[in-house]
Amino acid sequence: MIVDLTDVCSCENKAVTKEVTIDTTSFQSKLGTYSFIEKKPFELHLVNEGNKRLLISGETDVMLAIPCDRCLELVPTEFHLSFDRTLPLEEAEGSKDEEDEREGYMTGFHLDADRLVCNEILINWPMKVLCRADCRGICKKCGTNLNLRACDCTKSEPDPRMAAIQDVFNKFKEV
């Protein structure tokens, strides 16, 4: 959702609260595309500070379907997002970081709330997503989900560094 900030940016020390909904149906990153299971409308508090800065604050909860890192089953993962950003209202010669942050979700006097939410999701992304703590994963050979059923694959794998020695033993094996 694009939020028009013209009324806030035109007056110094003006504060506005706007109801915002997330329009996007999925979160996309270099990791992949993940669909939203649940997303709630939320309030953004916008304050034009006297020193040409815009303060953006608010919070919301979203839930994404993320595959388990071991068995690839979809896991509903909840994110509590809290926004607290200060952006410059004018193009400044100052810090490159502030300009990059502004370009991320502000174009002129328009704020892209979807991109703001996606940036917060990326910041809060969990290191590991598991369907359960004792997830057994998938078989390396046949791809069977070991949480659902066992497979008949051989479990022992020889060390590849010992392959030459194993060949010697197999060649001179006594019967």
In short:
The chain has 175 residues and is α+β, with helices and mostly antiparallel strands. The protein contains four helices and nine strands; from the N terminus they run E-H-E-E-E-E-E-E-H-E-E-H-H.
Record keyword descriptors for this entry.
about 180 residues, alpha+beta, six-stranded antiparallel sheet, three-stranded antiparallel sheet, 4 helices, 9 strands, about 20% helix, about 35% strand, elongated
Structural features, described:
By secondary structure, this protein is of the alpha+beta class. It has a domain at 2-123. Helix content is 20%, strand content 37%. A hairpin with a 2-residue loop joins strand 3 (26-29) and strand 4 (32-39). The radius of gyration is 26 Å and the shape is elongated.
